[in-house]
Design a protein that fits this description.
The protein is of the alpha+beta class. A hairpin with a 2-residue loop joins strand 29 and strand 30. The radius of gyration is 52 Å and the shape is elongated. Residues 1-25, 310-339 and 803-807 have low confidence and may be disordered.
């Protein structure tokens, strides 16, 4: 190194013309002070960190020993002169660290200055890091062939430069774009909205990132695509915006995946809103058109389309009850044989064309379409079938039916997907998706959403058919348990109305009954079992049977309810522990009333049930105050009776709480409305019953509704005759004679002989075995009634006498000559009664 210059810098290059010297942040650089003689006079910690020498090892020594190679004296002298002229110098050099390793550094030598009277130079440097440089040709190739579409537009939003990828995206050649605006060359895109965004970027300088829009490529004008675009401004060295650049990424696959996912998610909301098989099938068709297809056909196997009809149902992959032919008789692949076609019915149909003219079969009509390979087992274990391009000429299933082929050609049906409908190992039917107006054919990626749509609908259809079957079975059971006729006889005109709960809640346990009793009396019954469904209906049947049995024993209302209460307790105890069905027994309510047309009195008792409503002939409405009585099943609490008078023409109504209690109404308001509705004049009893239910029925209907109306009739005095009978066997003959005269008066001569025999036997038994007073009563109603009362509580017993017996055949003969007979007890004793059919009056 020359003694008069700075340290020699082998390989150092002077700055190029017009290039500013490198600038360094000397606070972070390795720095040393070198005297004009080339001796190091100052050493910093950063220099020690870079080269490994301590200050004591460097200061006072020539700087040349730090260089890896000796420098050129001439060039070193030139550098020194520049520094003395106040310009300074920067360049590269190779130095040697204390450990012997050589490193490249960027050096800067400052202009000369004097320190303690000596000329000095400040030398600073830092290790040179490798720099990666790209040639212009490489950069051009990168921008042109980048997988991301890129373009540069002028401030007037006209194309200046377009790379190959963007040219391919839009399908518009580069030469047709340059110099034109986007709205001029790509009218199919959201050009106006995109240009508005680009103007905002030009005005604010704020980039727009990931703006998505839809469009069509000129190369494929029928298939919509999705793009994600980012816009950012281009600036010069003075931060002036000179244009705009945008980058485009084709995100069609991502967009389609999102669309398919949204399609399947939305289906869960739109399909299965009701528990109706046909409605659910139609909801699938309505949902898929036009979002997924232009024509949707939903065909269900006949047992599925009509689930209320009894019959076997498919289990596993078995075909029994599916409407499919037996595997032993079908010919797989035999497309022309009707025996290999499943019996299906059109359940859902929807088209983008009004009236669905493309469809051959309408809703409810039979169909036999199965896609290739035309094997019915496709419905059992087949995968979805995709036919991207329909051929109405060569495909066998289309050729077999010319009408189908003609529809394909006429309406341009060009692509389809057929998906078997199965759920819980049950074959349900087939769903077909077809495109015609949408010219884009179905792709393999469309099979998955089609499968998901059908799978969701299949579960809903299966739920609906299972519910419909159970609901129909429960309703059939309940209606079979309800009376088909209401035998009010001459004592009552009767009408009833029963409406089961709505489809959501199912069938309940309401019931009503009209039971003929002895002595022309009639029992009216209304009850309500807690809960819905088959369990409630079955419980209702058990209670109704119990009431019938106890009513035949002529028990008074309070005793009858006490026996029913005991029965409910026993039924509850018989329920397995933890079974919820027991709750349908406990809490049941009942109202039992007995009307006597002779006395016009009605005796009633209730077990937790609403009181009856009574409307007099003049329209006055009342709700008799009856002892409430506990609901059935509580046990240990007594029931009490009440007696009211019901003159001729009175209307009494028995009902369940479903008629008076709604979600937004209390019972008292409902009872008031019921009374007002029943006070309507000029309506027949049947019409009045139906009108009242229509007016009061809550919407939606949360519970079963039962209403029983009865209009009373008095049994006129000329139809009732009674005599006191002396407790003397000799009086029997006189009673027989009076009975014969009465029957002739009533025009019942045909019954004279048998009635005399019956009266003789009953009165003789009373005289012989009972104590007085004895009374005979004859009633002419729809039947001829004979009653003998006494004060004894001992009931006669029917015996079958032996051939050698001299007596004991009296009651046996009575039983043979009457329609029915029996005993009922009164506070004074008992009554033995019989009923005989009255011969029909011959017509002339």
């Amino acid at each position: 190194m020359a003694s008069a210059g700075p340290p020699s810098t082998p390989g150092a290059e002077p700055p190029r013309s017009g290039t500013a010297p490198h600038s360094f942040d000397t606070a972070n650089d390795a720095t040393a002070v070198v005297a004009g003689t080339g001796t190091v006079v100052g050493w910093t910690q950063s220099a020690q960190d870079l080269l490994g020498y301590r200050a004591a090892e460097v200061v006072g020594r020539p700087a040349g020993f730090l260089l890896a190679m000796p420098g050129d004296p001439v060039r070193v002298a030139g550098i020194a002169e520049r520094c003395r002229a106040g310009v300074g110098w920067s360049g590269a050099a190779t130095v040697r660290r204390r450990d012997g390793r050589e490193i490249d550094v960027d050096l800067r030598v400052s202009a000369s200055f004097h320190l303690d009277g000596r000329e000095c130079f400040l030398v600073s440097g830092r290790e040179r890091r490798p720099e990666w440089t790209v040639g212009q040709s490489v950069l051009d190739a990168f921008l042109t062939s980048s997988p991301i579409g890129m373009a540069v537009l002028s401030p007037q939003l006209r194309y200046v430069w377009v790379n190959d990828t963007l040219e391919r995206f839009g399908g518009v050649p580069r030469e047709q774009r340059v110099g034109h605006r986007m709205s001029e060359v790509l009218p199919g895109l959201e050009a106006d909205a995109i240009e508005t965004l680009m103007r905002s970027v030009l005005e604010t300088g704020v980039p727009v990132i990931d703006y998505e829009y839809r469009g069509w490529s000129w190369a494929d004008p029928h298939r919509q695509r999705a793009y994600s675009t980012s816009f950012f401004p281009l600036t010069d060295g003075e931060d002036t915006i000179t244009g705009i650049c945008y980058m485009v990424l084709d995100v069609t696959d991502r967009w389609k995946a999102q669309q398919r996912l949204a399609l399947v998610n939305d289906a869960g909301v739109s399909i299965g809103s009701t528990l109706d098989v046909m409605r659910t099938a139609q909801e699938l068709a309505d949902f898929a058109v036009p979002r997924f297809a232009d024509l949707v056909l939903v065909d269900l196997l006949e047992p599925v389309a009509s689930p209320e009809e009894p019959g076997p149902w498919p289990a596993g992959t078995g075909l029994s009850g599916t409407g499919l032919p037996d595997a032993g008789t079908a010919r797989p692949g035999a497309s022309g044989a009707s025996s290999s076609r499943p019996r299906m019915r059109r359940a859902g149909l929807r088209s983008v064309r009004e009236g669905c003219p493309e469809a051959i079969a309408r809703i409810g009509e039979p169909v036999d379409f199965v896609p290739p390979p035309n094997d019915f087992r496709f419905l059992v274990d087949g995968e979805p079938v995709l036919i991207p391009v329909l051929d109405s000429v060569r495909q066998l299933w289309a050729v077999e039916q010319p009408a189908r082929a003609a529809r394909i050609r006429e309406f341009g049906l060009h692509s389809l997907i057929c998906v078997p409908m199965r759920a819980r190992d049950t074959v349900l039917g087939l769903t077909t998706f077809i495109r015609s107006v949408n010219l884009v054919p179905f792709e393999p990626e469309d099979v998955l959403p089609a499968r998901e749509l059908v799978a969701r609908a299949a579960v809903c259809v299966d739920n609906a058919r299972r519910y419909t079957r159970e609901h129909a079975a429960a309703l059939t059971l309940q209606r079979s348990l309800l009376p088909h006729t209401l035998p009010g006889g001459m004592a009552l005109d009767v009408a009833s109305s029963y409406l089961p709960a709505d489809a959501k809640d199912g069938v309940g346990g309401d019931w009503f009954d009209v039971i003929p009793l002895s002595g022309a009396r009639v029992a009216l019954v209304v009850g309500d079992v807690v809960g819905h469904g088959i369990s409630a209906a079955a419980t209702m049947g058990r209670l109704r049977t119990a009431v019938h049995t106890l009513a035949d024993m002529d028990l008074p209302p309070d005793e009858l309810l006490a026996h029913v209460d005991d029965l409910v307790l026993r039924l509850s105890e018989e329920e397995p522990e933890g079974e919820a069905s027991g709750t349908t027994v406990l809490g049941a309510t009942c109202l039992y009333a007995v009307y006597d047309p002779v006395t016009q009195l009605c005796t009633m008792a209730r077990a937790g049930h609403p009181p009856p409503v009574v409307v007099s002939q003049d329209g006055r409405v009342s709700f008799p105050e009856l002892p409430a009585g506990p609901p059935l099943g509580l046990g240990g609490m007594p029931f009490e009776t009440a007696e009211i008078e019901l003159p001729e023409g009175s209307l009494i109504g028995l009902y369940t709480n479903g008629l008076i209690e709604g979600r937004d109404r209390d019972a008292e308001l409902g009872m008031s409305r019921l009374g007002g509705a029943l006070s309507q004049r000029g309506l027949s009893l049947d019409t009045l019953c139906a009108t009242v239910v229509d007016q009061l029925l809550p919407v939606p209907q949360p519970d079963d509704v039962a209403l029983l109306l009865a209009r009373t009739h008095e049994l006129s005095p000329d139809h009732v005759v009674s005599w006191d009978v002396p407790s003397d066997p000799a009086a029997v003959a006189g009673v027989r004679a009076r009975t014969a005269r009465l029957l002739r008066t009533w025009g019942l001569e045909e019954l004279e002989m048998t009635t005399e025999l019956i009266v003789s036997e009953l009165v003789t038994n009373a005289v012989r075995y009972a104590t007085g007073p004895i009374r005979l009563r004859l009633l002419r109603q729809s039947v001829l009634i004979c009653e003998v009362s006494d004060t004894s509580s001992t009931s006669p017993r029917l015996r079958h006498a032996r051939t050698t017996d001299e007596g004991g055949r009296g009651l046996f003969l009575v039983a043979q000559l009457t329609r029915r007979w029996g005993t009922r007890y009164t506070p004074e004793g008992k009554i033995i009664w019989t009923e005989q059919e009255i011969p029909a009056t011959p017509t002339r």
